[in-house]
Write a structure and sequence with these properties.
The chain is of the alpha/beta class. The chain contains seven helices and six strands. The protein is about 40% helix and about 20% strand. A six-stranded mixed sheet has the order 2-3-1-4-5-6. Helix 4 packs across helix 5 (about 125-135) and helix 4 (about 115-120) packs across helix 7. It starts with a strand and ends with a helix. The mean pLDDT is about 95.
Length: about 180
């Protein structure tokens, strides 16, 4: 079983990233998947996150107390999850928005997702950059399957931007291995 949490500030696309990841793992890779989301009632204010639980067998655990992989897009989010972050296997942060990372027992990947996305076209693709990074650190997440899902999930005019964002995120962690 694999547990993934994607967190940030409301409006950063954490829910969308979780949906893309969940669909990719379920529909393209054949996993059993449960995806949950949580976001503040205030528009574009407060922490938002998406949890994805994945297994080849049926799922009997639906709540994530401590994920295997934690992707974080915003410093305040990481600050509030400091204890959880200290126990994860992989912590992937958008280093253009997260400057301080406390100790963790796992591996930390600092990926400048916001800057990478801005260089492509828009900072709104930072969430997809981090999905590409996840594919680079997790053997269970296939980059090609994510790309297929991105092509289905985004309007045609945004597909190339998001496919490039995936690939740049993947490449960013490969350089750090």
């Amino acid at each position: 079983m694999m547990k993934i949490r994607i967190g940030g500030w409301a409006g950063q696309g954490t829910v969308r990233a979780g949906t893309i990841l969940g669909k990719s793992l379920a529909l393209e890779q054949g996993y059993h998947v449960v995806q949950q989301r949580s976001y503040s009632a205030a528009v574009r204010s407060g922490i938002a996150y998406s949890d994805v639980v994945v297994d080849h067998e049926g799922l009997d655990e639906l709540v994530i107390e401590c994920p295997d992989h934690l992707l974080v897009l915003y410093q305040d989010t990481l600050d509030q999850w400091e204890e959880m972050a200290s126990k994860v296997e992989h912590l992937i942060v958008d280093s253009s928005r997260v400057g301080r990372v406390e100790k963790t027992s796992g591996r930390v990947y600092k990926v400048p997702a916001g800057r990478i996305a801005e260089n492509i076209a828009t900072s709104k693709a930072a969430n997809v950059v981090l999905l590409g990074a996840l594919a680079g650190v997790s053997a269970e997440v296939d980059l090609n399957c994510l790309e297929k899902t991105v092509k289905k999930e985004f309007p045609e005019k945004y597909v190339d931007i998001n496919v490039e964002a995936l690939k740049k995120g993947y490449e960013a962690v490969l350089e750090k291995r």
